Amino acid sequence: MGMTADTQFHVLAVDDSLIDRMLIERLLKTSSFQVTAVDSGSKALKFLGLNEDEQRKADRVSVDSNSHQDLEVNLIITDYCMPGMTGYDLLRKIKESESLKNIPVVIMSSENVPSRINRCLEEGAQEFFLKPVQQSDVNKLKPHLMKSKVEEEEEEDQFNNNKRKDMEEETIHQIEPEQKYSS
Amino acid sequence: MASRRQIAAMKQSLFDQDYLDEQFIQLEELQDDANPNFVEEIVTLYYRDSSRLVSNIEQALERNPLEFNRLDSLMHQFKGSSSSIGAKKVKAECTLFREYCRAGNAEGCKRSFQQLKREYATLRKKLEAYFQQARQAGPFEAARRSK
């Protein structure tokens, strides 16, 4: 399947509270995640937007598909209540983006409001954690990441298989009409 | 210097008297050899970060009439941080304050806030004393899980 033992997942954490950022960062690092923590939805989008450019650059320049692994975000975990762009707003923007919509998003909130939770899940959030977030919550994240990783790799395999088939067909086409084909 | 048993007793009384709750234990479990002072660091940051909120609330309480929505919003933030470090009594006062906000009870808000400040200050003193003793006893005590 191509997954190395030391594959590290990169989580983008979004929370306007300094204390909660410190806490979620520690929780995630304890589970061996790589973490980037930002204090607003707009900063999160900026970070993800920069990622997009880096990925495009990497795809053009190098053959090695892992060259942009450092910057790739595998999961976003965001607070719901934030000034300006709420976690829900951020979730929607991510799900509306062609390049970002497949990144799993988890919402955190200090308030247990069923309608809020349902709204987020309906909008595509994978999980909803009640604050303060616990280690047991963070332990639920790996399966979502593994699933995304498998789906991503299956897509890549499919893509590569199709590419190879196309190339083979082209080669055959070249050989048949023109006997002076040289490799 | 306090013995390990005295330090453990100090900590236990903080739980028994409801100054701290289960969340504090969660914080301790996040400590390891690489991060042996995580709890003290986050508590220190809490007091530094929330002092700004406390003075904002104080100023807001001096206005006439009170802006209950704004007060509620500030207190929501304060409650969140307090909850994240396991500050049980402080958190309870935050909840009470918010109830007064929603009821539009200005006197209740002011009274509750005075009590909140007392709890907040008391907890700080107790935790500072606890951390100081724990540090003197050595990193083993600070990092050890409590059951």
From TrEMBL, chain A:
Pfam families: Response_reg. It comes from Acacia crassicarpa (northern wattle). Residues 163-183 have a biased composition (Basic and acidic residues). The keyword Transmembrane does not apply. Residues 143-183 are annotated as: Disordered. PROSITE patterns: RESPONSE_REGULATORY. The keyword Nucleus does not apply. Residues 10-146 form the Response regulatory domain. Keywords: Phosphoprotein, Transcription, Transcription regulation, Two-component regulatory system. The modification 4-aspartylphosphate is found at residue 79. GO terms for biological process: cytokinin-activated signaling pathway; phosphorelay signal transduction system. CDD domains: REC_typeA_ARR. This is Response regulatory domain-containing protein. It comes from the Eukaryota. InterPro entries: ARR-like (IPR045279), CheY-like_superfamily (IPR011006), Sig_transdc_resp-reg_receiver (IPR001789).
UniProtKB/TrEMBL annotation, chain B:
GO terms for cellular component: cytosol; nucleus. InterPro entries: AHP1-5/YPD1 (IPR045871), HPT_dom_sf (IPR036641), Sig_transdc_His_kin_Hpt_dom (IPR008207). Residues 106-133 form a coiled coil. Keywords: Coiled coil, Cytokinin signaling pathway, Phosphoprotein, Two-component regulatory system. Its main location: cytoplasm. GO terms for biological process: cytokinin-activated signaling pathway; phosphorelay signal transduction system. It holds the Pfam family Hpt. GO terms for molecular function: histidine phosphotransfer kinase activity; protein histidine kinase binding. It is found in: Cytoplasm, Cytosol; Nucleus. Residues 35-130 form the HPt domain. The modification Phosphohistidine is found at residue 76. Functions as a two-component phosphorelay mediators between cytokinin sensor histidine kinases and response regulators (B-type ARRs). Plays an important role in propagating cytokinin signal transduction. Histidine-containing phosphotransfer domain (HPt) contains an active histidine that mediates the phosphotransfer. This is Histidine-containing phosphotransfer protein.
